[in-house]
């Protein structure tokens, strides 16, 4: 599946450390990624925005390698609880993705965790 032209919202950040568990954003609409056809990505990171390059190589029908960034991100101070700043850093660590049950799972480098996203329906 190609990512070009798709929009995703964050559902969950899964830690590889069972003691940390997972984090679900208080409002998934605050955290979105738009994969533009020109090779740029637009990120909504709570009250901040980010933009940068992305590229992927499809290795199998449902996934492949994925690189995001570096991102240029605004630096507004978002009210708690915000995971925007942490998420901005994690996006640069994405190495691969797989689409499973309609959700995109992004694997972070060095067993850093999994970012789980669901598609945003195109606006009519």
TrEMBL record:
<dbReference type="Pfam" id="PF03724">
    <property type="entry name" value="META"/>
</dbReference>
<feature type="domain" description="DUF306">
    <location>
        <begin position="3"/>
        <end position="114"/>
    </location>
</feature>
<keyword id="KW-0346">Stress response</keyword>
<dbReference type="InterPro" id="IPR038670">
    <property type="entry name" value="HslJ-like_sf"/>
</dbReference>
<protein>
    <submittedName>
        <fullName>Heat shock protein HslJ</fullName>
    </submittedName>
</protein>
<dbReference type="InterPro" id="IPR005184">
    <property type="entry name" value="DUF306_Meta_HslJ"/>
</dbReference>
